[in-house]
Amino acid sequence: MLGPVILAAARSDKMRRLVSAAPVTRSVVDRFIAGETLGDTVPAVRSLADAGLEVTLDVLGEDITDPAQALRNRDAYLELVEGLKPLGLGTRAEMSVKLSAFGQALPGGHELALKNVTPVVEAAAAIGTTVTLDMEDHTTVDSTLAILRELRERFPGTGAVLQSYLFRTEDDCRALSGEGSRVRLVKGAYKEPATVAYQDKAEVDKAYVRCLKILMEGEGYPMVGSHDPRMVAIAQDLAFRAGRKNEDYEFQMLYGIRDDEHRRLAAEGHRMRVYIAYGTDWYGYFMRRLAERPANLAFFARSLLTRS
User: Fold this and answer.
1) 153 phi and psi, to 5 degrees?
2) Fewer beta carbons under 10 A from the terminal one: N or C of the chain?
3) 3-state secondary structure string, the chain?
4) Alpha-carbon gap, residue 217 to 177, rounded angstroms
């Protein structure tokens, strides 16, 4: 029940100021955010790569109000590509982008986002890696998938995220289960109305399994975005039943959550990718992490009590 309350707080400027000013916040945020700059973050990338893990990097900054900010976000991702180039990790270090950071929510946003994200996808391809389009609230799905279709004409490795709590997602999984398609399946972390999304956790979980089955039985490359041990086990079983080898799909989990599980899966020969977010605009991302799992909220609450 707390999840919707926290998601509402994520959109509150008053709560942003309150949480940001709390002395304990910085140390807790550091659990989920690798750093504020690319220089802060590269050591984490190297450390995870040395441990046999793969990464996807997100430059935080989706809350924009004008085209100039969208251009700055584009340039931040181009800087990220330059930072990844000397590491020579190829697709072991890819990028995740929120199209709102590239102007999708602004007037003329669909065309603006496509224009701004295309150079990033081009630059990623030039160093042998790729980009995955994060999914945001339900009003952006059609635009995001249309941009995906355009990008995949030139860069077929471009991936997308689908959210199982949306009623439409099973159909989207079928549409994106073809050869060469890359889909990260997550449960969803935005507050959505009952007209478009399941509200009950059990129903979201059931939808996740149905969607995952479609992807595993398809010809694309499923990316299992979940920290839920039951979903991890189900994914392994569905992959086995579909005749997939470990290299034919991957697990993805967030930086700072279940680190021991990251390493366990990698040690067992699975592809395990860690989602690393960095930047100064961390508030919305941080609040969604709290809303997703009660354990995250409990961690924050314990930290507040310990420091107070």
Assistant:
1) -65, -35
2) N
3) CHHHHHHHHHCCHHHHHHHHHCCCHHHHHHHHECCCCHHHHHHHHHHHHHCCCEEEEEECCCCCCCHHHHHHHHHHHHHHHHHHHHHCCHHHEEEEECHHHHCCCCCCHHHHHHHHHHHHHHHHHHCCCCEEECCCCHHHHHHHHHHHHHHHHHCCCCEEEEECCECCHHHHHHHCCCCCCEEEEECCCCCCCCCCECCCHHHHHHHHHHHHHHHHHCCCEEEEECCCHHHHHHHHHHHHHCCCCHHHCEEEEECCCCHHHHHHHHHCCCEEEEEEEECCCCHHHHHHHHHHCHHHHHHHHHHHHHHC
4) 8
**What token pair was written down for 308?**
């107070």
Tokens representing 178? 């073809």
Give the residue from 295, 253, 223, 274 showing the smallest Cα distance to 46: 274
Distance CA 196, CA 210 (A): 17
* Residues assigned a catalytic role: 134, 184
- The length of the chain in residues reads 308
Question: Is it the case that residue 304 has pLDDT exceeding 90?
Answer: no
185-190-196-198 Cα dihedral, nearest 10 degrees: 70
Closest CA to 135 of 122, 153, 117, 148: 148
pTM for this predicted structure: 0.87
By DSSP bridging, strand 250-254 and strand 54-59 are: unpaired
Q: How far apart are CA 101 and CA 65, in angstroms?
A: 10
pLDDT in tens, 192-221: 999 999 999 999 999 999 999 999 999 999
What percent of the chain stands above pLDDT 90? 76
**CA distance linking residue 190 with residue 84, whole number of Å:** 30
Asked if 303 contacts 297 with a C-beta cutoff of 8 angstroms, the reply is no
Q: At what angle do helices 283-292 and 2-10 cross, to 10 degrees?
A: 180
Q: Which of 226, 252, 255, 225 is nearest to 40 (CA)?
A: 255
